[in-house]
Design brief:
single chain
Length: 122
């Protein structure tokens, strides 16, 4: 619920994410920075007032309305496949889902119906 904090070195951290489901723009702003700073200081209160923000960036995660990934062959295009929509769970699930996708591509192992893009084509 607090996002994430990871260290790049003994003195450099990356803090994220704001995780909004709806937003007015996809750029950086003071509201997002304030949110992240508050989270950082809540998790590491000993560093309050002892850090400097070096940079800020933003991005939009690909997700689906039901928050389930989309995988499989695109119906009307030869040799075109999709593996997307992992949303905020990409770091957690990408390894396992990549394995499933590789089995699908190499061996023809069917994808779970809740992941397969064909669920959207019905």
């Amino acid at each position: 619920a607090l996002g994430y904090i990871t260290s790049l070195s003994k003195k450099t951290f990356v803090v994220g994410s704001t995780y909004e489901h709806s937003f007015e723009h996809s750029g950086i702003d003071e509201k997002g920075l304030s949110y992240l700073v508050q989270r950082f200081e809540k998790v590491l209160p000993a560093l309050k007032g002892r850090y400097k923000v070096l940079s800020q960036w933003s991005g939009v995660r690909a997700s689906t309305p039901n928050r389930k990934p989309i995988m499989g062959k695109l119906k009307d295009l030869d040799n075109a496949f999709i593996f997307s929509g992992l949303g905020s769970k990409g770091l957690l699930y990408s390894g396992y889902l990549s394995f499933l996708m590789s089995q699908y591509l190499i061996d023809g192992t069917p994808l779970d119906k809740e992941l397969d893009i064909q669920r959207l084509e019905a």
